[in-house]
Amino acid sequence: MANEYYTLYMVDADDVNIDQIVDFRIASHVNRLQLSGDGAIDALFNAVMTGQPMMEFSSTAIKTILDGCALSGKSISGEGTLTAFFQKLAAASRGAASSNVKLTSGQGFLVPLRLSASLGAPANINLRYYALSSDGVTDPVTYAASQTLAGTPDTDEAYTLGPAKINNTAIDCVTSLDIDFGLMVVLAPIGNGEVYPKFAYIQSRRPSITLGIADASLLSTLTTDGAKIASSTLCYLRKLDEGSTRVANETETHISFTVSQGNVYYENYGGAHDGYSAGSIIIEPSYDGTNAVITIDTTAAIS
Q1: pLDDT digits (tens, 9 = 90+) for 32-67
Q2: What CA–CA distance (Å, rounded) separates 77 from 109?
C-alpha cells in the first residue's frame, strides 16, 4: 500500500483568500452515546448525540485577515462557502491533481482569536471557524477525497513588531505585542432533537493588548492603579520589505491598533542577576460611543 501523507494549504473564506497558513486543525467536538442495560457489561448501542465541528488555523497574512475578518468576525452563508484542503505529499512535490482532501462548509462564523508579534519573528494571527448546519441534522462539513486544489496561494506580505505609544508618549523598547480579540462566541442551543448548531453570534467583546516592555520608568507613570487613556494610545506592526529589511515609517503600509478609551496597567516587572529586567503592561479598551473599541488601520504610516 502506498504511503499517504498530507500537508496544509490555503483557506478560502468566501471572498477572503487566506494563504500563508502555518498550522491548521479541524476537530469534531462530538458527544457520543454508548448505551447498555439489563445488566450487560458491554455497550450494546452507539450513537452521536451532538457535534460542533470547528476549524482553527494560523497565518502570517495579517493584512488580508484583518481587512476581511477583524473585531466583528465574518459570517459565511448564502452563496458563500469556506473551503480548506489537505494537499497530498509526494517526494518532491505537493498537491497533484485529484489526490487531495477538501473540506467545505456552506454556513458558519469565522473569528480572530489572537495576534502575536515578537522580536526577530513574523507576526502571526490565530482564527477559529464555527461550522454550522443548515437544518440541524446535516453535517456542517463536507469531506471529499481525490480533489484538485483550487486557488493560487502566495507569500507576499509579512509584518513584525513595531513601536507603541501610551497617551501619546512613545514606549522605549517594546519587546512583544499580543492582542487577544476577546470575542465570546455563543452557539445557539440545539433544539428539537437536532445534532448540530445552526446559529452562532458574538455575546460579548472584551479585547486586550499586552505589551512586553523593558523600561522600568513606566511603573512610575502607571503605578498600581494604572492610568486612564486620555490621548493617542496605539501599537504598530512594521511591514517587512521583501529582499531587504523594513518598509520606511512614512510609507502607509504598516498596521496600527488605536485605543481611544480605556485603562493601562502594569501586569508584572522584574528580572534576575544575570539579565535585564522586563515585564508587561496590559491595555484594556472600552467603547467611547463613537470609535471602534480598537481601530485597526492596515494602511498606516508609523509616526
Answers
A1: 999 999 999 999 999 999 999 999 999 999 999 999
A2: 9
- Assigned C-alpha cell, 248: 520606511
Q: State pLDDT tens for residues 128-145.
A: 999 999 999 999 999 999
Q: Is the Cβ–Cβ distance between 147 and 203 less than 8 Å?
A: no
Contacts of 248 (CB under 8 A, 6+ apart): none
Beta-sheet strands, E only, within 119-214: 124-131, 142-147, 159-166, 169-170, 174-180, 183-187, 200-205, 208-213
Domain residue ranges in the chain? 6-29+50-300
87, 94 contact by CB (below 8 A): yes
